[in-house]
């Protein structure tokens, strides 16, 4: 794979399957948000120029770990113009509010 035309951002994970990567074409202005650079399984980038700058966040949430909702709140409070991506293990028990509501209710509750 040739990624010479891309800036590649990576972050180590907390398990053997974890870690995240974002590749952004070099023609797009991008900067890593240093506030989150030491968080495992998480990358946050500023993309574009002000006033139209967006924040891109990608996260891997391992099945045996809680969702980092406090960090999601920190990300959104920094820039509400944010796109969240990632593997959040939606079928894991940590998404459940009740036994009957497992698959997607928890992230929807947080997003409200």
Automatic annotation (TrEMBL):
Domain of life the protein comes from: Eukaryota
InterPro entries per UniProt: Endo/exonu/phosph_ase_sf, Endo/exonuclease/phosphatase
Location of the Endonuclease/exonuclease/phosphatase domain: 54-97
Pfam families in the record: Exo_endo_phos_2 (PF14529)
Protein name per the record: Endonuclease/exonuclease/phosphatase domain-containing protein
Organism of origin: Adineta steineri
